[in-house]
Write a structure and sequence with these properties.
Chain lengths: 371, 416
């Protein structure tokens, strides 16, 4: 009487209604959940109606005998169950496991669905198999290739992080040369046996994979371990200089795409270039409680750093000893740039403005105005 | 069951469903369609995208008018063709005609024509995008910051407009006419989107980024807008208004915004209100120039109390016409209508008059002070503050007495 599609959609509708009713009792404010569930109820009820009116769009019945004959063993129910288990475990363990479960589940359901469909598409099992391949191979091959390449690249990156810099450079040149030579060999010998090509590629990939595992178990090289232990939040305003500090390499790209102002040092003079202002400014307005990106561009002959003087830090000692709240860039060489991220919660008190200055340059400062 | 029998059953089922639905809801459907069509004729539509009031909105309008016309004509042709085919080739039991596949000439033509139309549209669209993205001809800068659920405006020092100390306001953006204004937008919490349809298109305000939007008004006027990126519980209440004033009126507005704080008269109700403000409101709201009893400046600390880290600066609250993210009017309906319906030449004078005691919308302001979360949905319930570490997402319920509310209203009225 009722079609399969109708049963599915009406089931989702009923469950959603139950969830909505339960939400009324459980949640204090139903706004977002209520809207979402109401929309789900509306759409699935509509789909249920369409399904029952059109009888799931079926025009002829499939033959049970035919299906039985052409159905082959499938691994996808097993993979689906693995996905469900990962999903459930992920809810408890970590979001990484949860999302892995989601990916496995979606992939398995897609494969299972297409396999079931293809096995019933005709009486010819060869055609059915080719129908499945035609639909899924364009997706499967790139995904598998990307995964394989990802494993190789990740393994190689572990090797590069474990060996010292000069060895790494030699290794990179050596491996690049091997890849180039192999490529030339394949071009010059187009009739080379397929099994030989596969063996060469597989040998190289497995070799890198094993080297990656060994390198990962060895650990990072010493200077990276030291750099990791250093603070990356503008740690120094004094004469000391970090040996391994990475100059905010990980943040520079995003910072530079959203710069509030560029502070330039030219011929011993500081000025601020702000988007929208046609002329250099001698003050920068910074919004309260909002991360603000500044770039220090040193066009002077010597190395300098930009220092933001943000008043006094609240005292933690009973004597009321105050400490300056300073935020600094690294020492910046001629022509180089450094980012400075400021977040200021309160305006400066009258008479003690917040200032940007460069140690070693007297009389040069830019006021930071916080309205 | 054979195919023709199933087909006939399906048809009868669909027909019966349509008949029931048709009988029951035909009138309702007709009214809904007529209302939708009639809505297009509305005269009082302050957020109408088809009525540009400045050169930037005109650039968009000049693009969307012909594109809409072309798309409308094509849509009409397609709809008529579909209706014709439906009726002409309706299933009357006739045999299925011979199926053909592949008409290269027709397929190539039907690919090239849309491609050409889209290419022409793309050329003009890119032209409009580049014109709207210009920043090198800017005459004035205003920083715009979005947060749940209000907009803050701050005007950096710009001596050519008489702004020699920063001005900070909220809810209503005030700008001079005939001036290329560049908004530098960002957000303190989630993504919002700034949109004054009469003056330009939309621009997202994204945390950690500064995005620009050009505004320019041809004539003095008031222009309504709305946050257009879903940003949480009170997204629908996150409104804004742009007020374009003549250059002379704008100079007066600037002078007023930079005027020093004037303390309420001694022993007045407003002075008692100032004490209540210092006790309750200054935790989040800044009033520039306000001093504590010991003579030190009262510096608000919204970063310690509010999730976004900011609350509206109330220094010249009564020079604005709205409050609570432009959700409510500070002016009574009659006084507000006088401003909104004033001719362009008189808008400046009416707007600069601010909010007098007679014009104050006492009902909404008192209601807001009495229980703000009841008027505008906000996550201000202490039981729901775990996710934000105890910080509010809007103004909380302060349990003020009616006496304190009266004092506060009297004090706020002095913030002209």
């Amino acid at each position: 009487m009722f079609s399969t599609g109708f049963k599915y959609f009406i089931g989702v509708t009923v469950l959603s209604v139950v969830a909505l009713v339960m939400s009324l009792f459980v949640l204090d404010q139903l706004a977002i959940a209520g809207v979402a569930l109401s929309m789900l109820i509306g759409s699935t009820a509509l789909l249920a109606g369409i399904a029952v009116v059109t009888r799931d769009g079926q025009t002829k019945t499939s033959s049970p005998e035919l299906s039985k004959d052409l159905t082959t063993q499938s691994i996808w129910p097993l993979v689906t169950s693995v996905g469900v288990v990962l999903l459930a475990l992920g809810l408890v363990i970590s979001s990484l496991v949860f999302f892995s479960g989601v990916i496995v589940l979606l992939a398995a359901l897609a494969e299972w669905m297409v396999k079931s469909w293809s096995e019933r598409s005709s009486k010819d099992s060869g055609y059915n198999s080719s129908a499945r391949k035609r639909l899924l191979n364009p997706i499967e091959f790139p995904v598998l290739a990307a995964l394989g390449l990802g494993v190789v690249i990740y393994s190689f990156s572990r090797v590069m992080l474990a060996v010292d810099k000069s060895t790494g450079a030699l290794l990179f040149i050596g491996l690049g040369s091997v890849v180039l030579i192999a490529g030339i060999l394949f071009v010059l010998k187009p009739n080379m046996k397929r099994s030989v090509v596969v063996a060469i590629c597989a040998f190289g990939a497995v070799g890198i994979f094993v080297a990656g595992i060994i390198s990962a178990s060895t650990g990072l090289r010493e200077d990276l371990v030291i750099a990791k232990s250093e603070s990356h939040e503008h740690p120094e305003c004094g004469p000391e200089r970090s040996k391994h500090f990475d100059k905010l390499a990980e943040g520079n790209l995003s910072l530079r795409s959203s710069v509030d102002a560029t502070i330039e040092l030219v011929d011993g003079k500081l000025s601020a270039r702000i988007v929208g202002f046609n002329k250099p400014q001698n003050s920068v307005t910074i919004r309260r409680s909002t991360p603000t990106n500044l770039i220090f561009h040193n066009l002077d002959a010597k190395e300098y750093r930009l220092v933001a003087n943000l008043g006094d830090l609240a005292s933690t000692e009973p004597e009321g000893k105050t400490e300056k709240n300073l935020v600094c860039t690294q020492l910046t060489a001629q022509g180089a740039e450094q980012a400075l991220v400021l977040k200021i919660d309160k305006p400066a008190t009258v008479g003690t403005p917040y200032l940007l200055s460069v140690p070693g340059l007297e009389g040069q400062s830019i006021e930071l105005v916080v309205p | 069951m054979n195919h023709s029998l199933r087909h006939s059953n399906l048809k009868s089922r669909v027909a019966s469903v349509l008949l029931v639905v048709g009988k029951k809801y035909r009138t309702l459907f007709g009214v809904a369609m007529a209302s939708t069509v009639a809505a297009g004729c509305a005269q009082n539509a302050p957020q109408d995208t088809w009525q540009p009031k400045g050169p930037n909105a005109k650039i968009i309008d000049d693009l969307q008018q012909p594109v809409f016309a072309v798309a409308g004509i094509i849509g009409l042709i397609v709809a008529v063709a579909i209706i014709y085919v439906i009726f002409k080739y309706k299933d009357r039991g006739q045999p299925i005609p011979e199926q053909t596949h592949g008409k290269p000439a027709l397929e190539i033509t039907l690919t090239i024509i849309p491609a050409l139309i889209l290419a022409v549209v793309a050329v003009f669209t890119f032209g409009a995008i580049f014109k709207l993205a210009k920043t090198d001809d800017t005459e004035m800068i205003i920083n715009v910051t979005g947060q749940q659920w209000w907009w803050e405006y701050d005007y950096p020092v710009q001596n050519e407009f008489g702004i020699n100390q920063p001005i900070i306001s909220s809810g209503q953006l005030v700008m001079p006419v005939g001036t290329k204004v560049l908004l530098r937008e960002t957000s303190r919490d989630v993504i919002h989107s700034y949109w004054i349809p009469a003056l330009n298109g939309k621009r997202d305000a994204v945390p950690g980024r500064v995005q620009t939007l050009r505004l320019e008004a041809d004539k003095p006027g008031l222009f309504a807008g709305q946050c257009t990126e879903f940003c949480g519980l009170s997204h629908a209440n996150m409104r804004m208004e742009a007020i374009a004033l003549s250059k002379a009126d704008f100079a007066k507005w600037v002078a007023n915004q930079q005027a020093a704080y004037v303390a309420p008269e001694k022993d007045s109700l407003a002075q008692q209100g100032e004490a209540v403000f210092l006790n309750q409101c200054v935790r989040c709201h800044q009033v520039n120039g306000l001093l504590r009893a010991d003579g030190t400046p009262a510096i608000a600390a919204p970063d310690e109390n509010v999730w976004s880290g900011a609350a509206p600066n109330l220094t010249h609250l009564m020079s604005r016409n709205t409050f609570a993210g432009a959700t409510f009017d500070l002016l009574s309906k009659q006084c507000r209508d006088e401003v909104w319906n004033a001719p362009s030449s008189e808008i400046g004078e009416k707007y600069l008059a601010g909010v007098s005691e007679n014009c104050l919308n006492q009902k909404d302001l008192r209601g807001w002070l009495r229980n703000a979360p009841a008027m505008k949905p906000m996550y201000a319930n202490p039981t729901q503050l775990v996710a934000t570490g105890g910080k509010y997402r809007g103004m909380p319920y302060l349990a003020l007495s009616e006496d304190d509310i009266s004092k506060l209203v009297a004090y706020l009225l002095t913030l002209k």
